[in-house]
Structures are given as C-alpha cells and as structure tokens.
UniProtKB/TrEMBL annotation:
Superkingdom: Bacteria
Official protein name in the record: tRNA-modifying protein YgfZ
UniProt KW tRNA processing keyword: yes
Keywords attached to this entry: Cytoplasm, Folate-binding, tRNA processing
Length: 326
C-alpha cells in the first residue's frame, strides 16, 4: 500500500492579506488529475478536439487549452504537454466523469488510447521553486522528465509535479524537505492572483472560452483548422459576440466563495446577478479574493456583493494581462 499522503502532513496554509507567500511550498493537488493519450493518431485526434494548436506544441513547452461541446461551451480547461509516448492533459478531477467520455467519443475511429491515470499531481510554488527544479532536473525546458517524474512549468513561481504513488514520497522528500506542505487552497490563491482560468463540474458547459479569458493565456489558436466548437469561438473573436470576461474581485467575507456561487452587481439603487465564481480563496482576516465571470462592459468602480452577506461590498482588481492584446 502506498502511503505517501499520510507520511506527509498537508494542511491549509493560513494567510492574511498582509502576509507574504511562502518562499517554497509543496502542495497536494488532489483535486487535479491527468488524462493521457497514447498512439500514432493522438496528435491529430487532439487537434480536432481542443482549442489549442497541438500540432505546433513542442516537447519542451506546455499550453492551456479548452475542450468544448459543439456549441462552443467549455467542458474543461486543461494544461497540455508531451508525456512519455503521447500527451498529458492535467485538469480538474470534478469534470472527469462527464468530460472524459466526450473526449473519448470519436476515439474508436483513431489509433489513440485515452486513459485517466492514477498519477499523483503535486505543485511546487514560491520564489525558490524555479531554483529547486533547476537543481534536480536537467536542462532549461518548461517540461522536463526523469525516470520517475515529469515537471511542467506553470509560471515564474510554480511547477506541476507528476509522478506515481510509489515514488511520491521520495520526490517530496528530495525536492523540498524544508518546504511548507500545503493543501490545494494555496494553489487556488496563486491561480486567482495570476487569473488562470479553470472549469469545474458546476461551471461545465456554461461559458465559451473567451468568457474565462482563455485567449489571454494563449489557450486558443485562431489559425488552426476546425475543432469541436470552433465556429462559436471564432465568431466570438471576429464578430464580437462575447459579452463576458473573467475578473479578479476582492472583499470582506466570512467564508470562501465557491465555484458556481452567484455574485450580484449594483445597478443604480438595485442589485441583480452579476457573475459566477470560478475559484475563491479565504484569507485569515475575514477577507477573500475570487475569480468571477462578469459582463465585460462594467465600469472599473462597479460594486458587487453576495446575496447572503449584502453588507460586504466587493470590487474588481487589476488583471495581470491585457484582455485586448492580440
């Protein structure tokens, strides 16, 4: 029996709004999982399913991507990279049961095997994460491998670590013996601060890719050929039909906003539904921060609230990227 998760104690890392992030944290990403595609048709199959350009994805890079239904609504957002003899797709565990059968639907006509793996997915985060990876993994690529582990760069302070339950204890002990061992809430905070989109089961098939800023994080190719939902995605870009975007909002809160929660917005003296929470983080000093899909024409000083705490007003923060950049 593999007991890596009980040999190391991963706990919520309490942060207030004035605290610094830990210099190095090992994070148990138990709510993330990985799907693999192996076989000679895997590249072409994914090219016809995902929003990213799989054909141009080199072995040293990873990319965001979306998987849509025929109407262009997102089933999931994933990180795609070369893995072993095929591809790895890291996405939320909550969408696996509904999204994976859809990804497999036409695979019977292609030479590709699609499998939800039992891989252990960990995160390494903090100012020292890059130096730690550089010390233990050869090369300077954004995707690196050794005999037991694959590491994938997320941003300047984060890496995904993908290994097996058999080797997880050794990887954790070797890479980061002095790190903070944290649960997935800390990874959520990083995702919110960097405005990285995700889809959970409760938000599945609710948004087109541009409504969660997938184009702003290079998760959509507008030059590749057809893929499922492509017509809607292209129309949103070239005809301006998309009226929503994902923003960072912050405010007072006594509990953590959850994916799918509704945020109200002020309209004169009234309030109406303004948006949907994608991910939230609760600080220790009764403040919270969240990613929320909102109308993309709201004023920067718009006010928001949750219906169950109407006295606590929320506001938008600046995004770390330009939604209008080409």
């Amino acid at each position: 029996m593999n007991t890596w998760s009980t040999q190391h104690t991963f706990t919520p890392f309490a942060l207030s709004t004035t605290d610094s992030l830990p210099e190095l944290a090992m994070i148990n990403l138990s709510d993330w999982g990985m799907v693999t595609l192996v076989g000679p048709d895997s590249k072409s199959y994914l090219q016809g399913q995902l929003t990213c350009d799989v054909v141009s994805l080199t072995a040293d890079k990873s990319t965001f991507s979306g998987h849509c239904d025929a109407k262009g609504k997102l089933r999931t957002i994933m990180r795609v990279f070369h893995y072993q003899n095929g591809y790895g797709l890291v996405q939320r565990q909550s969408v696996m049961a509904s999204q994976l059968p859809e990804l497999k639907k036409y695979a019977v006509f292609s030479k590709t095997e699609i499998t939800q793996t039992a891989a252990v997915v960990l995160g390494l985060a903090g100012a020292h994460a890059q130096a730690t990876i550089d010390h233990h993994f050869n090369g300077d690529a954004d995707v690196r491998h050794n005999d037991t582990t694959t590491v994938v760069k997320v941003d300047n302070e984060r890496w995904l670590i993908i290994t097996t339950a058999e080797h997880a204890d050794t990887i954790i002990t070797t890479l980061a013996p002095n790190a903070v061992y944290a649960t997935t809430e800390l990874w959520n905070l990083y995702d919110i601060k960097t405005a990285m989109p995700r889809i959970d089961s409760i938000t599945e098939l609710e948004f087109i890719p541009q409504a969660v800023n997938l184009q702003a994080v290079d998760g959509i190719s507008f030059k590749k050929g057809c893929y499922t939902g492509q017509e809607t995605v292209a129309r949103a870009k070239y005809r301006g039909i998309n009226k929503r975007a994902m923003y960072i909002v912050a405010g007072a809160a006594t509990q953590c906003p959850q994916a799918g929660d509704a945020l109200e917005r002020s309209v004169g003296e009234n309030w109406r539904k303004g948006g949907t929470v994608i991910c939230g983080y609760q600080y220790s000093n009764n403040q919270a921060i969240a990613l929320v899909v909102l109308p993309n024409d709201l004023d920067d000083d718009s006010q928001f609230r949750f219906a169950d705490t109407p006295e606590a007003l929320w506001h938008k923060l600046d995004l770390p990227y330009d939604l209008n950049a080409e």
